[in-house]
Write a structure and sequence with these properties.
- It is built from 4 helices and no strands.
- It has helices at residues 2-26, 31-54, 58-70, 81-107.
- Helix 1 (2-26) runs antiparallel to helix 2 (31-54) and helix 2 (31-54) runs antiparallel to helix 3 (58-70).
- The longest helix has 27 residues, at 81-107.
- The model has no long low-confidence stretch (mean pLDDT 90).
Length: 108
Amino acid sequence: MKAKSTILLLYIAWLIAAVMLVLAAFEKQPDSFYTFLRWICCAVFTYSGVVSFQMKRVLWLWVFAVLAVLFNPIFPLGLDRTQWIVADWFSIGAMVIAAFVFRKVSKT
């Protein structure tokens, strides 16, 4: 039962992050939104990495670690808007694919 609740929490976190990333990709937001987005995404991707580690999904651990570093708010990367849009869509894609992979793992 604990694994199912962990996956459910992960799905909720991914949904929140994905909605924020879509908003960031589609239209220009205030700077405070992007700062908040970095904090949320970094936390979500770090948590995703921890869950991946617990589930012994090493590839996903690395994917989420890279995304956590990309969105890290302490030492931000100096990407321009188009590069961030690509990173946003890549992150959304990674979460969607991970949702299917982790769903299959949680059923077994």
